[in-house]
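Subject: design request, 149 residues
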């Protein structure tokens, strides 16, 4: 996993199977490629070049809305809330969330610790009779089930 990265562009080309027939989109793809190449030449000074998107950190438009009213950016992991101001969606988050984002070194360490915690819990559960009984129950269910014809 890359320890840190800079998002250069975050553009989506929906229904793009025939993109080679759409000159404007091909031109935009070429611009994005040039921006990536220039960023790779000078990584220390690489900056976002695309549309501002919704997330002010990574410019994603992909969010998960939690039942408690909070929102998480699906790309960088920042948690905050969504507001509508001047007919525009605004993603608002506390500054301390920047320590948790997936494209920073501190965020990677947090993510690694989350993995460690969850894997450790799984390893402990696998030792219990309760886990073994649940596993057996589901194996039996799968073996008994027959495909639908």
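Subject: RE: design request

Done. Sequence follows.
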């Amino acid at each position: 996993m890359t320890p840190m990265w800079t998002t250069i562009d975050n553009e989506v080309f929906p229904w793009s199977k025939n993109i080679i027939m759409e000159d404007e989109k091909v031109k935009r793809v070429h611009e994005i490629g040039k921006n990536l190449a220039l960023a790779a030449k000078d990584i220390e000074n690489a900056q976002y070049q695309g549309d501002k998107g919704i997330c002010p950190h990574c410019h994603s438009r992909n969010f998960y809305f939690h039942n408690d009213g909070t929102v998480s950016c699906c790309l960088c992991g920042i948690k905050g809330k969504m507001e509508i101001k001047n007919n525009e969606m605004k993603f608002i988050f506390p500054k301390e969330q920047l320590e948790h984002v997936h494209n920073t070194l501190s965020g990677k360490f947090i993510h690694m610790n989350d993995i460690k915690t969850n894997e450790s819990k799984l390893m402990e559960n696998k030792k219990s009779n309760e886990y073994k009984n649940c596993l057996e129950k589901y194996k039996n269910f799968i073996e008994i089930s027959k495909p639908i014809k």
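The chain has a mean pLDDT of 86.
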